[in-house]
Amino acid sequence: MAGFKVRSVLVTGANRGIGLELVKQFLEKSNPPEWIFATCQDPEGERAQQLKNLVSRHPNLAIVALEATDPASIKAAATRVEEHLKSSGLNLLINNAGIVRPSTLESETPEDMSLVYATNVTGLLLVSQAFLPLLKKAAQGTPKPGLSCSKAAIVNISSECGSIANLIAWELVEVVSYRCSKAALNMLTKCQSLGYEGDGILSIAVHPGWVQTDMGSTGSHQAPLTVDVSVQGILNVLPTLSKKDNGAFVNWEGKVLPW
Ligand code: NDP
């Protein structure tokens, strides 16, 4: 971790929860990125207040508007980031934004199936497509062989809830639309790993654990992991990733999870 240097990183859904903590821990590193792009749906609104407080103390942090279900917003975000980066590329894209809707098999609705898929799967696809030219540029600008998160990488924040083989916590939360979306996101990650390896871009799906955020606290049970521990774990795993991990599904401790 100590020697892990990422020149530029973008985190979606960065105004609260795991996304905000990722931004904070990147800023606190002894060798922080030259650019951290924190995206949120409404940079002017109250929900972005914690990010705005950070920007006033960290000139390497930029807040960028990005609504994951709006292709125009995603394209505008990519343009904005490119303006900041000038001639260099984006090294690390962390697709963190996501939603869950409470549901059971009986209560699940077409509306929530569509909304959750649009946010958790299509949104991540579109964000990755929009930032692909900048990721390619970062890969081309890094002389190191192989794949790594400091060169160019797409990190999709997934969930073990989407693991078909390890179907965790079914008795606690059925969240059918969410589980289906994360299983699809895992497949998207695998596809990205095949499609982008030749461009020097690593793709990986990461389960952050069951974390004490707004999302992690929706059920009646207390999530075991603090956001601080989850994100520390993720930031310890990222530097260890290489070509052999391309297209894998791992948790915040780096353990490989079954699909
Ligand atoms: P939170 O609900 O705390 O935060 C979600 C973030 O995503 C917010 O910043 C939210 O923005 C943003 N977001 C939601 N919808 C959109 C959208 N349409 N466009 C742009 N941004 C959006 O969740 P967590 O921090 O807990 O979760 C982060 C990721 O980790 C998610 O992908 C989640 O599925 C995954 N995860 C979380 C677990 C947990 O236990 N917490 C377990 C496993 C996976 P806004 O504030 O504007 O709504």
Report on the architecture of this protein.
- This protein has 259 residues and is an alpha/beta fold.
- It has a single domain, classed as Rossmann fold (3-Layer(aba) Sandwich), CATH 3.40.50.
- The protein has 6 helices and 7 strands, in the order βαβαβαβαβαβαβ.
- It has helices at residues 17-28, 49-57, 71-85, 110-140, 176-196, 227-237, and strands at 8-11, 35-40, 61-65, 92-95, 153-157, 202-207, 249-251.
- Helix 3 packs parallel to helix 4 (110-140) and helix 4 packs parallel to helix 5 (176-196).
- The two termini are 27 Å apart.
- NADPH dihydro-nicotinamide-adenine-dinucleotide phosphate binds at residues 12-13, 15-19, 40-41, 47, 66-69, 96-99, 119, 157, 159, 207-208, 210-211, 213-216, 223.
Number of domains: 1
Full CATH superfamily name: NAD(P)-binding Rossmann-like Domain
What ions, cofactors and ligands are bound?
Answer: NADPH dihydro-nicotinamide-adenine-dinucleotide phosphate
Strand content: 5-15%
What is the terminal separation in angstroms? 27 Å
Please tell me the overall pLDDT.
Answer: 96
CATH fold naming: Rossmann fold
Largest sheet: 7 strands, parallel
What structural category arises from helix and sheet content?
A: alpha/beta
